[in-house]
Write a structure and sequence with these properties.
alpha+beta; 7 strands
Length: 116
């Protein structure tokens, strides 16, 4: 959880589900050894324009990402991680501007941000 770096002049922010492949190899192995068979670490990240990750949510266990989007029933902690991340983003002054089909398919804007 927490900010990776200060938001600075970012104008938009999009929440994404981080693929387990992007987690360091040693963290994947440790996580797999301490969780149920076939579970992988997942987390939500909030990426600003330009690709910088400004926020990271808590890690939760789920099956490897594939064609089916994860749900709380088989990825316990998903909803709590997303709720905490969204609250932190709003606390920092971001305002939700769009919402897609998935609960985490969210875009935020920062009112009054300077243009790039």
């Amino acid at each position: 959880m927490g900010k990776a770096q200060q938001p600075g002049t970012a104008r938009t922010l999009r929440i994404e589900l981080e693929d387990p492949v992007s987690v360091p190899w040693w963290a994947r192995i440790l996580y797999t050894l301490t969780t149920q068979y076939g579970r992988s670490p997942m987390r939500f990240v909030a990426r600003a324009d330009g690709g910088r990750i400004l926020y990271r949510g808590a890690t939760f266990a789920g099956p490897a990402l594939g064609r089916t989007a994860p749900r709380e029933a088989w990825a316990p902690g998903l909803e709590a991680s997303l709720t905490e991340l969204r609250a932190e983003i709003v606390r920092d002054g971001w305002v939700e501007s769009s919402h897609g089909q998935q609960p985490w398919d969210l875009t935020y804007v920062r009112p009054g941000s300077p243009a790039d």
